[in-house]
């Protein structure tokens, strides 16, 4: 059960409107690596958690925090849109240089063409639950497998991709209010990358999971001879130069070897047998017409 | 530029048909964490790579290997479907117990209801580029950000989720041929988890990237005071018990602190200003009708 | 900013596992008219609200309540899955009648075929953010236009479709624990239908919006002669018998008339002009090859 | 069975081409609340209707009318695209001011960047079945539940959102031909809002359905004590000021009450039981490796 | 502008309900190659047509016919669902053999598990605009390029894939009413395959378009030396045995040649240059942290 | 099993960066008719092929070639993005005319607004697996039915739509390096259109398949009287003028006839029966509340 406090977690106030940056800021709100994704991912991981209580509680903490991040971004975007295109059009129409260049006739298009058209037409100058090119957010971005190591690895990724995108956006604006909010989100992503890395160590120290995931699958059932081989599938051998091709493997259970031209394990060329002709696929040789009775 | 060898990488031959397991095996073929996903992810990471050659070559090697994994799974699924439902219907019709139970009339439905209907109707008993519940594969599953640490973390995740799913499937069949192929894929996932973990260490040792990603964003620009704080957003303090709430952070740059009831940093409640009434949103007070001239 | 209380809003405990009902219960969780949809819809309506504070506060109240409904359903589904298919297989294998019918060989398939395969393979017996046939939830289900009357009408719809679906599901189970939770959700949908209907009246009484939405578009700019005409586009005149074809219109601004065979307002047949041949569409007559220089 | 008349329902002729407005006009054609959505929604509601004939006939009338609206918009968009970018490039290249600004080299990009690229590349200057940011139309926008009150409430919403969007677009163009067509669509939306509101009253007067939907679910089976309570889930009590928090409920069956800090109905914190370890989720305590035999 | 006749184009009456076949019959209704796809494809091709009137009229004729095919399938599906699962449950419960097998407890699940759950929960026993595994129809299935030869080739494909799927479904039912309707759809697909093949010949005879499409692109601008070469990219030379590897090409403009081991045309290995470090991708060598000012 | 050669199949080097053309070039990479689509379509057709070996080998050859086309386009796009928006901003800021027009403040927006925002934010100046308006590629674009004639018809279409799009793009750039690569892709599409047309003839000559597809469905089971009728569904008779309305049909098995006003074959108006009231759809007359016990 959830409750809401009136204040936002942090400031979300731009110095001035900027509909074009509003479009870009949709990416950390409703994009694949945006705040809706981490909010939903952490909430589902928490609700589905069957592990120790400290993990469930920790996951729910961060999941709940992320709802507030969604709130901050949605508010910021709505404020970046606060001057409507119609007003901008009127302002710009007074600008003679622009008027001359654009022919004096369809000035509003120059602005609107660059906007996310749905910000105006669909949301009436509000935030959208979509990414920077307009794709709706999809729950395919929500990852919750029941295996906490597999999922915490995803979470480290999400906070890495997320911090990367916000850092890029930081470079695309010089609005002090926007940058202030981004500096908060970037700092929280620093924390969250560290938090999930720490949680991975905790899981291993608690003996609950380790590499290779899932560690409870009996490793003697896998095809052992290829479990630590690097297979070179392209010309050139630069790939031999990394630590992935020699020395002990990170799981401490094997030694990497390098196979320059990997052989096939089978003579099977993948040819298929014919099936019932009433499925009407193309057979190896002509067959007479037939249907089920 | 790519070339194909006739033999498959490994055996892909079931002992006998099993259309229901064919449906489930679509998950590691065309699901979010299936072979098409890693094939496309690694190929795009390689093509977009601007880092040292040894990384690009290594990424392309594994990307090319994964095309062969897609091939093995597609072939296996087509073979698991080789006895058509029509033939099974006829076989089952001769089984009097089934006939009695089902009423003697619509026996084929019992089989077909459990199948992926598109295996028969759309693909004519071939594999589909979709997951186990029929969702088409989407390139949203392809991750290539240009930042290799962010992406290698994704790759570790992908091989973890993938190995987890295949291990679960191993438990759902007792066909020796199917299990043999799965034991190969599980072993390769062991290798690939280790490979990406090794590549992460190499990246750090090469000084190219470290935590927090992206490490080239000047950390003094982030809101430092919240960069290592654990914020407790739910009742209870079990979340205080993990190493994510105290001690040095994994990046070696901070010390975790635990904030029991995190304060808001602002008095701002997120209220928005009115906008041009010609956008027809609901205003704070009634306004007269208007349209642009 | 949001906080979480440990207790759920209501009981979510089934008497016994039921993986097939778990599949169906995904619809009110992650389907088009499920709890994720109303949660996200109300939160976005609230964040984007530019109207009076009482509306914004009310919308945020219900949006926050819905997060708790998502929580209850996710928990219920995870519990309905608590006996794994493997255990069920072993139980059923002891049942000789089933064994005989199924041929004694692939009993687990009979159960698994009916399950949502991703409950097992992807989520490890946890809830999924998807609907009852496996489609991922999409933010296209989130509606927030900035116009509160347009949106409250959507909200009444959402609570109507939602209550309808849950009532149907009530009839498909006889588990007392499941039915208890459904009776709570159904009651809240009763409240929420009434709440949005009341909010619509309030909006009208506050003079903020009325029919036709948007009421601030000057109605003299619309093509008035067709604004209250019922146009009969199919054979038969049963459609003349309703109050939509005669008498005063609900907005109080017109009188319905019935047009039996509606005429076209134009002689224009929609034929198009040719365009630059370098777009390579099919022209009205042959043209010579050409390309831009 | 359907037939087509040569003339369109109304004029659809712009005064001059405008590829940027063509992009925006995709929203009422192929967007969530566009003409394809209402066409498909009404047709499916009609085909699935099991209620009285006057409803089915009325629904089919409007569904058939909407096909003609799709036709008008598609034609308008194709005409707005009639001057190709190549010609515009040549015209603009003669304009020295533009030439100077743009550097004289890549003038066409300035236009094409603002266009929907698929209008040119994919459709050869024709309309697309997509929205204003390029998302394909999806049948998730088609609503037909079998319950006419639930569906008519959706229909009122669709005509409200639709009229809202077209009114916004009216403000973004000053082409008399485009505005003329929009004034027709706006008027029909006025009619259709009224029509569905009238149909809702008719349903109630016919005794077929009322609030709460579905009215045929026995209301004594719902958890009555929460069926008319407003639950305050956020700080502040502005939400107490509306008619949704006090007085009789619109369905005439209850009285609203306001609960300031809603209690949980359960002590259950949603913790889950462990499951079969062969699903490889993270357990509460370490378990030995295992697989099905 | 469109009108509807009361009678359907053909009979659509099953002898008895069959919810499992109803699920499969969604494929030709709302699947990729179903009737909604051809309806929308032909209508958009017609509305966007800039070629001779006889083509536009012909395309609109078949587009309008297809609306009636959608109607027949939707009606058939609604009728196949007419006995509700609840009634079937009660009927089956009286059947002691079934009762014994199923354990007497959850009989309804056996039926419902095989059904499309949304037929009951979402549509109330009506048709859905989705395919046989529940994916919503998407306008990505609508093809209209402006080039009639490219599009007519698609149309031949659509009628081929469609007839193939319906023929497969014919074999999965023995209901005389269903088969009667399918025999009509199959016959119309025979006509439509022939119709589009004839239209292709007409286009060529009218000199409007020929192979290679688009024929108005000056062929001297393409890289002529590879325009008629078969490039062997896999081991083995069976592919040399077809008429695609030797002799005159079907367009009459070239002669096929077979290249056993195709060479690369370039020494370029696709390596990329470094970019501005403020994009935070991984560079070839370490760089100091930086951000835009 | 697949291997990669270092060199690309052809040159992929632009003369200079062009982020706006990079956006458009996503269409032939990740659009519906782009190289990923043909790559995946041909590979799946090959893996699922149950016909003669020469077909399977030929299909795999071209499928493998297409992987190299994806590679070329991804590389070209990454290179077109090589000057980052930040650098361009700095360059443009020095251009006083632009500075004056744009107001000197937000110059970067003018460029970024036209870019695909995800090229920068998500991919760090790399290629995306998406189309020109940002939709992710979906495996719904992959066609493999098991019937080679149905599929080869699709393949001819794909190479036609693909060549059409690339020819259009040729006209939108004057970069010699880009045009050189496009001239290669256009030539290969010429070959591939011819190749699939030749393969269709070969299939027919081998007696494996012919019109109407599937030819192995017994044609006497279709409703013969409508198998060669052209049904005129719209006003006007221009559609009578083509060879699709008279003379022998292309399959050589019938004679086209023209039906001016096609009659319905049934008096059935598609009305449905009532169903169990516990599904809560709207019935023909009021019923009392009820629920399953
Ligand atoms: Ca965050
Ligand atoms: Ca793999
Ligand atoms: Ca709810
Ligand atoms: Ca309309
Ligand atoms: Ca048809
Ligand atoms: Ca190609």
UniProtKB/TrEMBL annotation, chains A, B, C, D, E, F:
For region Disordered, the annotated ranges are 235-293
SUPFAM superfamilies given for it?
A: Ferritin-like
Give me the stretches of Pro residues compositional bias: 283-293
Source organism superkingdom: Bacteria
> What Pfam families does UniProt report for this protein, alphabetically?
Mn_catalase (PF05067)
Which family, according to UniProt? Belongs to the manganese catalase family.
Q: What is this protein called?
A: Manganese catalase family protein
From what organism does this protein derive?
A: Microvirga arsenatis
